[in-house]
Structures are given as C-alpha cells and as structure tokens.
Amino acid sequence: MKQRVPLTLAAVTAALAAVTGLAALTAPAAGRAAAAAPAGGEAARMPVERSLLVCPAPSTSDIAETVYTAFTPGAAAAGGKGSARLLGATKDAKPVLELKEPGKPLGAKASGAEAPALTGTADGFLAPGWSAQQTTVVSVGRTRGVLGVGCTAPGTDFWFPGVSTAKGREDYVHVTNPDDTAAVVDIKLFGPDGAVKTEAGTSENIRIDPKSSKAIALSSLAPGAQIADVTAHVTTRAGRVGATAQVGEEGVGADWLPASVDPSGTLVLPGIPADATSVRLVAFAPGEEDADLKVRLAGPGGSISPAGNEQLHVKAGMTAGADLKDLTRGEAGSLVLSPADGKQAVPVVAAVRIARGSGAKQDIGFVQAVAPVGTRATVADNRADENATVLSLTAASGADAKVKVTASPGTEGGEPASQEVTLKAGTTQHITLAPAGGKGAYALTVETLSGGPVHASRTLTLPRDGIPMFTVQTLSDDRSTVSVPRATQDLSVLTD
C-alpha cells in the first residue's frame, strides 16, 4: 500500500540547495520565527547555510604585506553550529584564517610574493553575510601602492571596463577556480575601435586547473597593441571562477579593478574622493545600439553636471573614455550615469580610474559600477586611524533613503558602534565610524531601513612617504538570505 509522506520545509530546502550551487538554505534556531513564510502564499526569506568566496593572489612583490580580514554580521544562533575559513586555492592547503564567531572580525597576515590566491567556505550561522577582504601594501617599486579587494563569489561572466594595454601599464586578469573540476575561460578585449585582435590560441579555451589560480597578462593576449582604454570580458565555457583585474601603472600606482555590475541603462559609481586630482571614466556598450549617457556627480548638496562632460557617447561594441579631470573640486561625490535626454536606456558597463596626489607622489584606485547595497552589505577591513576610513553613501534615485551603519569591534578589541543616516535623493554623504576603543581592523555593515536604493563604497587611505596611497571598495548586498516559495499545493510524495 502506498502512503503519502509530506515533504518538509527542510526537504524542499535541500532540493533547492542542490541546484543553487553557491548557497544552501537553512532556518537556524534563532532565526526561524523571523524567517517564517508570510501569509498569502508569498515567498519567505531564509538564511543561507553555505557561502563560498574567492580571493586573488595578492602580489608578485617580495616586499608586499597583506592583511586578510573576515567577518560575519549578527550573533550566534542558540545551539547552532558554524564554521568559516579561508585557505590557499590549492589542493590540501592549510587554512589561512578560521572565523569562530559572528559579530567579531578575525585577521591574518602574509608577506612577500608567495601568498596564494584563496578560496573559502562558511557554513551554518557563519554563512549569512560572510565577507572577506584582502589589503596589500607595496611601499616601493614600479607599481607600489595600496591594493584592496573584497573576496567575491565565483561566477561565469565578468566585465572589466578600465583595463589597458598601453605602454607603462601592467594589467592582469586573475582567474581562480575553487572547484574540484577544471574550468575553461575566454577573454575578449574591446577598445575604442571595437574588438581587439588577439594572438591566436591565447584568449580562448584557457584552462584553469581544479583548485588553482592563473594570472593572465592582457599584453600577452594582444602583443604590440597600445590601447589606453580597454574593456575585458571574461566568460566561462565550463565551470565557474572568481575573476578580478589587477592594474599596475609604472611610477604611478597599482590597485585591483573588480568586475562592473551587469550591463544596465543606469549606473552608479559611488565614492570618488574629495582630493582626486584625476578622474577618468571608461564605459562600454555590449549590445547592438549606441548609448548616450548623462553624466552627473551626486555630492552632499545635490547633483551637478561636470562642465564640458555633461554627456558621454558610447558606440555599440566599443569602449569610450572621458577625462573628467578634478571632477570633485574638493567635494567628494558619486558618479551617476543615466540615459541622456530621456532616450531609451541602452545597457552599459563602466568604471573610473582615480588618481590622488601628483608627480612622483601619487597613487591610483578604481571604482566600478555597482548594484545597491540591498538589505545589508559589509566591507571587512577598515582602520581606526584618523581619516583612514571614509564610507560613502549615495541615494542616486528620486527617493530619499535611510540606512543604519554599524562598526564592529576591532580584531584586537573594542565595542561596536552604530549610526542611522538619512540620505536626500540625488546626494552622497560621507561618514567616519569606528568602534569605541577599537584596535586592529574592523568591519562596516550597512543596512537599508527605508526608502529608495542606496549605493556605497569605502575609501581606505594608508599614506606612505608622502604618497596618499589608497584603495576604494564598493559594497554589494551580502546575499545572506534567499527566497523560498511557500507551498500552496500538496507537496507530498508516494512511498510503498
């Protein structure tokens, strides 16, 4: 006789987890009530049970000093279990960092050129919102600077507007495979005249072995090409990878350039420092239509159009650049790109190269177009030194917004601090918040309380020998929960 056995939420969860790849779902004891499905058959938001992050190899310099910081917001679930660790992206690698509890960041250090790319997983109550950051300081050399990057989830499609094959540039795409099977990637380059001709056999079917990382010099893909503004498109034929661009500019500086948000008609690039001496915008339209973009700077008092650069025309399949010079004029802000003159929105990707200082005393950093912070977002490595950490918050749409910003304790102690911030539509606010008595690196978490979408970034400044070395990291939704549809039908199964 066959019996009907109801499928439990856990069973449905397991089935969904099997196809998500990146995150399994669970309802920790402390979060069951909050995660309960709403009435009316609507989907419930459930905490993820497993998160995966990938970090590129920090540097090839023997004098590089790297700090890793990992953090999970929130508190431990009563009776719950969890683990989170970063380890070298090789088989049988030892953990570099193992986080034990939420709400308190943990740090580790590495020196020299041997520091590997990292992969990491977080499980149980440490998975929701798990974030990791690596910050590298190279004090001297051809491409000295502060290189900061947030570790990211692996994917299959990445856009990098703002890279270059010009003389004096040393640009690489770092590709890391966190899985037990090989990945295969393609890299296409696009300049101001369209697709860049690459050396046969160099840019397609690039094999990334299991649990390994590869740094691919863009100059090796197109030998002899001297192109200032290039967009790199990285896609996978098989598997999934983490991908990040690393830019070095001889005698000027170096930093990481993360992938732009997916192509969109309106883009926000948050957090251009007030003392930027040079700002260059690079955009690419991947479709078959040209894009005409309105360029505006959202500052503390509202939005303005930069004189002489009110619009940018981007031809289909081509990379466009615009020198915005000292765009901020002493007042930090965020760049907002939108369709010009009410024209139809054409999806684009974009990033800006920022310089601070001048002559031999300058450094560069990048801000890529980014999605809103969503429900919650975290940047893990911040420093309590005076003016070292500045958080930029932008309400780029036509709606005001309110957020809550929380500074965690430091890796070496301190008490958390929080602040609510109200943002007027079309403005950017900049705040400095640190834990009381905090020592070591700390995390900043932004939670959207009400209103329209908010975009955010964090500028970290670590001066060396009169050089304003810095790096900017954008914040994206931490994807700590996923949507689980409520069962409105009989999901039972038949058993003998």
Nearest-integer average pLDDT: 89
Helix percent band: under 10%
**Main structural class:** mainly beta
What best-fitting shape do the alpha-carbon axes yield? globular
- The portion of residues forming beta strands comes to over 45%
* Oligomeric nature of the chains: single chain
* Number of strand elements: 38
Q: Which consecutive residue ranges, at least 5 long each, have pLDDT under 50?
A: 1-37, 491-496
Annotation field: number of helices: 3
The Rg value, from CA coordinates, equals 23 Å
Rounded to the nearest angstrom, the distance between the terminal CA atoms is 6 Å
- What's the main sheet like? 5 strands, antiparallel
Please describe the topology of this protein.
Blueprint: E1 3-5, H1 9-20, H2 32-35, E2 44-47, E3 50-55, E4 65-71, E5 82-88, E6 95-99, E7 106-111, E8 118-124, E9 131-138, E10 145-150, E11 157-163, E12 169-177, E13 183-191, E14 194-195, E15 206-208, E16 212-217, H3 218-221, E17 230-238, E18 242-249, E19 253-257, E20 267-272, E21 276-284, E22 291-299, E23 302-304, E24 311-314, E25 319-325, E26 333-339, E27 349-358, E28 361-368, E29 376-382, E30 389-395, E31 401-407, E32 417-423, E33 427-431, E34 442-451, E35 455-461, E36 470-475, E37 481-484, E38 493-495
Description:
By secondary structure, the chain is mainly beta. The protein is 4% helix and 49% strand. The chain contains three helices and 38 strands. The longest helix is centred in the first third of the chain and has 12 residues, at 9-20. It is globular.
